[in-house]
Design goal:
Number of strands: 12
Number of helices: 14
CATH architecture of the largest domain: 3-Layer(aba) Sandwich
Strand content: 15-25%
CATH superfamily of the largest domain: Glycogen Phosphorylase B
Strand order of the largest sheet: 3-2-1-4-5-6
Structural class: alpha/beta
Radius of gyration: 21 Å
Helix content: 25-40%
Oligomer: single chain
Length: 339
């Protein structure tokens, strides 16, 4: 029987790309035992996933504790979806004989790990499609890259109760505005996000919308200014510090707006309306990192705009004015009208 460990020790958005892979492996090999290994901070993304038999967390304080946990499972295959030296040695000492990674790092050579080449990202594909290359090693052929997150009925009820406690009425819609990206992607400034929120509040077509703010990176000045705009704006950062709680809240929202960052990908995996703001650079563009969902709208700055307004070395970035507030508002109105 196949016993497969899938390792992705990355950030929130990266971990969502694991879910299409585990689903397709389970579809082809329903008797396979599939486990995942992630950072403790992102493991909750995979909770309740029916395609995952075991969720392992890499204990950062004890390398050997994690090794022992891997050894107990007697895995036949280990897939390291992103180059990570610690993970490569965990798999090696964990006794996994058939191990596959990405690229050709020295630690992969030392540990005797096989490799899948991304051919310098030519042709460019989505990160979820690159992850699916590991499934193709097992004979899987699919174009379904839709990420998934699963909530229990109890969790769905908890999300609804959270909204009730915030005074959200049944005829009102909640739009999450996630202003942060932890510098992982170009983004609007806080001042522009403030203008965007004000545009939501002043548009009669969005009179039934309330705004939740969720980014931990928000400055005190921004939070204060946003809350002063209207009692329809809520700062819920402290209440959603737990990632699973954030997932519950997103699952009950009407839409989420943000740059290419974790919460945007959580929304797409939950099949919630979302609007992503993207740069056109190959490693940051929609083709590589776009939110995958029939309810996702990815807005990408054009190459012509970038060439005309950004410096060749990209140290001067004109992302701020590359996507207009009006354009996002129009998309939001359309999303909310369609449900």
């Amino acid at each position: 029987m196949l016993r497969i460990l899938i390792v992705r020790p990355d950030r929130v958005g990266d971990v969502t790309t694991v879910t299409p892979l585990v689903r397709e492996i389970k579809n082809k090999y329903p008797d396979a035992f599939i486990a995942t290994l992630t950072k403790p901070s992102t493991a909750s993304i995979l909770e309740n996933n029916p395609n995952i038999d075991l969720i392992l967390k890499d204990n950062p304080e004890s390398f050997w504790k994690t090794v022992r946990a891997i050894r107990r499972c007697e895995f036949t295959h280990g897939f390291l979806l992103w180059p990570n030296e610690r993970s490569a040695y965990l798999m090696f000492f964990g006794g996994i004989r058939y191990r596959v990674g990405v690229g050709s790092k020295l630690f992969q050579l030392i540990t005797g790990m096989k490799s899948i080449s991304r051919n310098k990202y030519i042709p460019l594909r989505h990160e979820a499609d690159y992850s699916m290359d590991f499934g193709r090693k097992l004979g899987i052929t699919t174009d379904n890259l839709q990420p998934e997150i699963f909530l229990t009925p109890k969790e769905k009820t908890e999300a609804k109760n959270f909204f009730k406690l915030k005074g959200i009425l049944s005829n009102e819609k909640v739009v999450i505005v996630h202003t942060g990206s932890l510098s992982s992607a170009p983004n609007w400034s806080e001042q522009k996000y403030l203008q965007f929120i004000n545009s939501i509040l002043s548009d009669d077509r969005l009179a039934n919308v309330k705004v939740f703010l969720t980014a931990r990176e928000m400055s005190d000045e921004f939070i204060d200014s946003a809350l002063k705009l209207s009692p329809r704006v809520f700062n819920i950062v402290k209440e959603t510090d737990d990632l699973r709680m954030l997932i519950k809240v997103i699952s009950n929202a009407s839409s989420l707006i943000g740059s290419s960052t974790g919460p945007l990908h959580l929304a797409s995996a939950l099949n919630i309306n979302c609007i992503g703001l993207y740069c056109c650079e190959p490693m940051r563009c929609v083709k590589r990192w776009g939110a995958i969902s029939i309810k996702a709208v990815n807005i990408e700055i054009s190459e012509d705009y970038c060439k005309s307004n950004c410096s060749p070395d990209k140290k001067t970035c004109a992302f701020e004015n590359g996507i207009s507030i009006e354009r996002v508002i129009q998309i939001l109105i359309k999303q909310l009208s369609e449900g």
